[in-house]
Design goal:
Layout: E1 5-7, E2 11-15, H1 21-28, H2 31-34, H3 43-60, E3 64-69, E4 77-86, E5 89-98, H4 107-123, E6 129-132, H5 137-145, E7 148-156, E8 159-166
Antiparallel strand pairs: 1-2, 2-3, 3-4, 4-5, 6-8, 7-8
Helix pairs in contact: 1-3
């Protein structure tokens, strides 16, 4: 199954490419988008992030997608299924980020459900995790709507996070 692109009722997801550098840069410079994702990133951090996520596609055949509304227009966010080392254990992470005008519309729930379905059907996986900041209650509600449950608190990249896992 080719995972380069997929659609949901309202979104189109396209595989991350090197040509998305400007979009990743735009997202990384947006304080609202990055508020729960470690803060605004500089050029070197953005380049490293892009390189790491492109390599994930090369190594695994899945990873980060740039999201557009199906009706067209500029990107509205990103979604991800990727390997994530959690306290020494290789897990498959599901995640997303949207620009503020697209918050509160159910898009995060929609794309998270789609990513979980892809992971089950295309990757044959049954277990997925997600991490978020303890203060990001909106994200925690999205994860719970998608069937993930609180697992534990942990430190990730030196910061406090909460880990959610598929039940």
């Amino acid at each position: 199954m080719n995972l380069d692109r997929f659609t949901t009722a309202r979104l189109e997801a396209v595989r991350l490419t090197a040509g998305h550098l400007d979009e990743i840069r735009r997202m990384h410079r947006d304080p609202a988008v990055m508020a729960h994702l470690g803060g605004v990133r500089d050029e070197a951090q953005t380049a490293q992030y892009l390189a790491r996520n492109l390599q994930h596609w090369t190594d695994h055949g899945f990873g980060l997608w740039i999201l557009h509304e199906r009706s067209g227009g500029d990107p509205v966010g990103r979604a991800v299924l990727r390997h994530l080392l959690v306290e020494g254990v290789d897990e498959i992470e599901v995640g997303y980020a949207f620009y503020p005008p697209f918050w509160g519309r159910g898009l995060a729930t929609e794309v998270t459900r789609a990513c979980l379905d892809l992971g089950r059907r295309a990757l044959g996986r049954t277990s997925f995790v997600a991490i978020t900041r303890p203060s990001n209650l909106a994200s925690q509600r999205v994860l719970e709507k998608c069937g993930l449950v609180f697992d534990r608190e942990l430190r990730h990249d030196g910061e406090a996070h909460v880990l959610y896992r598929t039940a």
